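User: I need a structural model of Acyl-CoA/acyl-ACP dehydrogenase from Nannocystis bainbridge for a docking pre-check later this week. Nothing fancy, just the predicted structure tokens so I can convert them on my end. Input:
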Amino acid sequence: MTRPHDFGFDETAQILKGTARRLLQDHCAPEALHRLVALDAGPARASECVWDEALWRRMLDLGWTAVAVPERLGGFGMGLVAIAGLVEELGRAAAPSPLIVTLCATYVALACGPAADELLRRIAAGLSVSLAGTDRRGSWEAEHTEVTVDANGRLSGTAWFVQDAGKVGALIVKARSAQGLGLYLVEVDATGVTIVQDAILDLTRDQAHVVLREVVPAQVLASPGDGARALVAAEPAILTIIAADMVGAGEWQLQTTAEYARTRVQFERPIGFFQAVKHPLVDMMVQLDAARSLVYDAACAFDHEPESAEVCARMAKAAASDAAAYCSDRSVQLHGGIGFTWECFVQLWFKRQRHNEVLYGDAAHQRAVLADRLLGRIGATA
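Assistant: Understood. Predicted structure tokens for Acyl-CoA/acyl-ACP dehydrogenase:
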């Protein structure tokens, strides 16, 4: 299939992205975000799930949980290219919300087929969902899980590194039985579910490990033996979404640092006058533009050329992780002494970027998988 012009980023996608930017500028400005999530600077502070629920309700009113849900199930049926634009704005604002995890869960549900139609209807109506499919080593690979299904269909075990677990209403749990890997919908308030908050670096998210003790799932989304297929099908979309978040956060780091360089005066000149500041800023811009192009290319491939989706998504996640690391480093460095303080807003984006880098595999991991996929194909055709 021929890919469309401009990756298929049409007028509707532009409207969605523009609306998101305006809403988040008005209701998630850096000053307000810092007051919300960084009020307590104590190193011994308790792990918290802090977010603006009023802003979340505004997102629901705009139908953002429904953007990827097909129209026949009450959603808008938008492509991943449009959703990448929305997520880029979430990253730019470092907005604490369960929207990103819900979008990722939506693509897993879509890959499950008709069995997940009811869940997709609920997501379109505003249900927030996160994925609970990682083992204690942090592996997301389909065969790795510590949750099992007994003969009565009850789930037991622990799912680790569950993102925004304190904000969502339900979980898609990956579990193994004698018949194979399946995916199950679990309500967070179901009997036998215990959510234990983790202490993490990122102040704009919460993370938890979820302990399940003979939990009766609300629904079987992918029958045993079919769960791995659904996860593999959804992974390119998930990687693209996380990469879009990093690109958006990186853009905030670039623009904020450039503005500081224009206004901070040292040696009777704005520090942006000096090449030691100019050159890193240009390098930030170049890396971000390259990563952004790969993100939208990956989203377009997912929408129009699915056979290329995995390779494109892994390239995007690798490039975005590299750009995030570089922009985070330089944004702190170029803010000088203030950049290392708790009061400086830069720390919020720095920590979000570090968290995103390793989420679903950092740049080194993505390139290792890419090498295995591409070299394996070459060897198979040789």
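Before docking, keep this in mind: The chain has eleven helices and ten strands.
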